[in-house]
Specification:
It is a single chain. By secondary structure, the chain is mainly alpha-helical. It has 3 domains: 24-73 and 80-260 and 276-436, no CATH class; 445-568, D-Maltodextrin-Binding Protein, domain 2, CATH 3.40.190; 594-734, Serine Threonine Protein Phosphatase 5, Tetratricopeptide repeat. Helix 25 (467-477) links the parallel strand 1 and strand 2.
């Protein structure tokens, strides 16, 4: 009699898939779920917010302790952020930092931040929940495709996978992205055999949600469509309907992705490149082997605690060998699984009641396409279009690999062989997990911040290497009384350090230090010789503290020695130093340390006398010191150099002209300020005040009324308007 099960069941038979799990299976399921939870909770609160996450959290509500700090406003300015009052505002602000971020996860984290808890740790817990939910979902898929044994093995791999554990801690979309991907595949498989609409609906909803999690989420449906077309060529009509459904529900997200205005290729060349063929192979077949890919950092901490540092270093150095063996092992496993479904099906042990070799073969083909095709498409885009390949962009594809490995193990003909296969997996993932324990994966800004808070004096200057890392570091550091600034080069960092430590600089009581924070490149070791040479060239003393992570952080404490020479500017006028000393002046101005603001602005002018912004900041600082004549001179010099450089120079200039009694000039400058800052309430107020002193009360009232309507809380504007109304009334009465 012909076997008709192939016609009705495209995948393994119904009985083993839906049979009630045994007590032993439930026990293993619970144990694996617990292991997955413990792995994801390990060091959860010790991970710092780094750039990828900063782009996600910058505009969320900050921790309550931050908001209650007297330095909160300055911290906002250092980080260059403000909390978003609405989801729409949050999405708009976030797009400026991370243009490619899709809105689904951002919306979820926005409301979690608002209504659960406003802290990075709370957002990590959200990611852990998504990552943990992947495990039972993958078990169900594995059980459906191959049986409960394969489901448990795949679940175990995902539970202790370095990449899935790490991305389950990230304040990013990857946990939700992976969860939706496995649900989409499961719904797709159920949809193939179930004529009812419910699985079509589940598939449509989940693939639509998936498309809004990541720009490359749409690489999954082609793998599913190719599987259907290759294994079921007689169902071309159903396949076409599926294609129309997929296109319809993912079209809005596809349009969104196409219209993304991403950064230029030049700005991403340092961290986004097309992978080599070896890197591509490792990404597909050895994603979990630390060392084979560049997603996770290996540390000797856990091994050193057991066997000592020397032996630990030898053990972690074997990770490259383990990575190569992983590629070979997974390829052999895939070949065996395909062979077990065809040539060697009589000896394979995957068969069960109602199962067929064709069904097992189709399951293997589906998981193989899921594993291989999305990374291959991404690689093709990187070669043909622009580099856009990162292993995490197709992290869900590794779930297909776990199913293939589980299927290969369960297809082994003897129980002893299957046990040996599971033991190898346990040893492999135990080794990988030990490489992750003992230190944070992210740059350890938490450790740096703790040391600075414990040892830095309030007058100590804190410098970070480059403007962007300053924002990220300042976010973790939180509000502090210290000035936090940056230097884009090692020479400028040393220049600012020497300037701040010079006894002639009014930076605060001696002794004082400067703390310099430098984030290194990926997977580097040792201190930074070029920076240390710059310190030494200026006669400065220094010590270095090293903090671990996939990008290490070096914290230098720098001080003035007894033989340190007096500070003299060494920077070139055409360097970034004039701008960055001006930025330092602004930081001091915001902290109301106007003496240091004057000194920093003057130093920028010493380096480049024709730098307009430095003159503007110098004028602002003089103005706060009531040195109005000097301030007026500085503003006029700034406008003479570049009248369009800084619009607020016009405001300040107009205000000082009013105080100097030069009201007609004040009207002219105020109008120029309004051209640069249309509708600005303070520009309007100054214009109105200048008209008031000229006796043109009607013009004054018009400008001040508009200003008060835009800034009703400013008592100065309201007072000036009242004075103008009174003067206008008296003028009418007198007439």
């Amino acid at each position: 009699m012909a076997d008709t099960s192939e016609k009705t069941l495209p995948l393994p038979g119904a009985e083993p898939r839906f049979r009630q799990a045994s007590g032993k299976q439930k026990g293993w399921f619970s144990l694996i779920l617990l292991l997955g939870l413990l792995a994801r909770l390990a060091y959860l609160g010790g991970e710092s917010v780094w750039w990828d996450e900063f782009a996600t959290v910058a505009f969320l509500q900050p921790p309550p302790a931050y908001e209650n700090s007297p330095q909160f406003e300055r911290w906002n300015q250092q980080v260059i952020r403000e909390s978003s009052p609405t989801l729409r505002a949050f999405l708009h602000q976030n797009k400026g930092l991370d243009p490619a971020a899709m809105p689904l996860y951002l919306a979820v984290e926005y409301y979690w931040n608002r209504y659960v808890h406003a802290s990075p740790l709370a957002l990590r817990v959200l990611s852990v929940l998504f990552g943990l939910a992947v495990l039972p979902a993958l078990y169900l898929l594995g059980k459906f495709l191959f049986g409960p044994g394969v489901g448990l093995i795949a679940m175990f791999c995902a539970a202790l996978s370095p990449i899935h554990v790490q991305f389950s801690k990230e304040i990013r979309m990857y946990g939700l992205f992976t969860l939706l991907a496995v649900i989409v595949v499961y719904a797709f498989c159920r949809m193939l055999e179930d004529p009812k609409r419910r699985w079509w609906i589940v598939y449509a909803v989940t693939v639509a949600l998936l498309s809004w999690t990541h720009p490359f989420a749409l690489l999954l449906p082609p793998a599913l469509g190719l599987f259907w077309l290759v294994t079921r060529p007689g169902e071309i009509v159903r396949w076409f309907k599926w294609g129309l459904l997929t296109a319809a529900v993912t079209l809005p997200a596809a349009i969104w992705v196409i219209t993304i205005q991403f950064w230029g290729q030049d700005s991403t060349a340092s961290w986004m490149r097309a992978p080599t063929l070896l890197e591509l192979v490792n990404d597909i077949f050895a994603d979990d082997a630390i060392g084979a890919t560049y997603q996770v950092n290996a540390t000797s901490g856990a091994w050193a605690w057991i066997v000592g540092e020397e032996a630990a270093q030898w053990i972690i150095s074997r990770r490259w060998t383990v990575g190569r063996a992983t590629v070979i092992g997974t390829v052999v496993a895939i070949v065996w699984l395909l062979a077990a479904s065809t040539v060697f099906r009589r000896w394979a042990s995957l068969s069960g009641p109602g199962e067929t070799s064709a069904a097992r073969r189709r399951s293997a083909v589906l998981t193989l396409l899921w594993t291989v095709l999305p990374p291959l498409i991404l690689y093709g885009l990187s070669v043909a279009w622009r580099p856009c390949h990162q292993p995490r962009y197709t992290v869900h594809s590794s779930l297909g690999l776990y199913l293939l490995v589980g299927g290969a193990i369960m297809a082994l003909p003897k129980r002893a062989f299957r046990i040996a296969g599971v033991v190898c997996l346990v040893a492999f993932y135990g080794y990988q997990q030990m490489l992750m324990l003992g230190a944070p994966q992210h740059p350890d800004y938490i450790g740096v911040s703790k040391l600075i808070r414990e040892e830095a004096r309030p007058h100590d200057l804190i410098l970070s290497h480059n403007w962007l890392w300053k924002r990220v570091f300042a976010y973790t550091l939180g509000p502090v009384p210290n000035i936090v600034c940056y230097g884009s080069t090692y020479a400028i960092l040393a220049e600012k350090t020497a300037f701040s430590l010079d006894p002639e600089t009014p930076a605060g009581p001696a002794p004082r230090n400067v703390w310099v924070v430098v984030q290194t490149d990926y997977f580097t070791e040792g201190t930074i010789a070029p920076l240390e040479e710059e310190f030494t060239a200026r006669g400065l003393g220094w010590s270095a503290h090293e903090f671990s992570g996939i990008q290490r952080v070096l914290l230098y404490r720098v001080w003035q020695r007894e033989d340190t020479p007096p500070y003299l500017p060494a920077a070139e006028p055409d360097s970034a130093a004039p701008k960055e000393f001006s930025d330092l002046a602004m930081e001091y101005w915001r902290a109301h340390n106007f003496d240091m603001a004057v000194s920093a602005a003057q130093n920028a002018i010493r380096i480049h006398p024709e730098y307009a912004r430095a003159w503007s900041y110098l004028g602002m600082s003089y103005k706060e010191q009531d040195r109005n004549a000097e301030a007026l001179e500085a503003f006029e010099r700034a406008m003479a150099i570049d009248p369009d450089d800084y619009p607020w120079t016009l405001n300040n200039h107009a205000e000082l002209l009013i105080l100097a009694g030069r009201h007609e000039e004040a009207v002219t400058v105020s109008r120029k300020a309004l051209e640069a800052l249309p509708g600005d309430p303070w520009c309007l107020a100054l214009l109105g005040r200048a008209y008031y002193y000229l006796g043109d009360y009607q013009q004054a009232r018009t400008a001040l009324t508009e200003a008060a309507g835009k800034e009703s809380q400013d008592m100065r504007i309201r007072l000036w308007l009242e004075e103008t109304e009174k003067a206008l009334s008296e003028a009418v009465t007198h007439e």
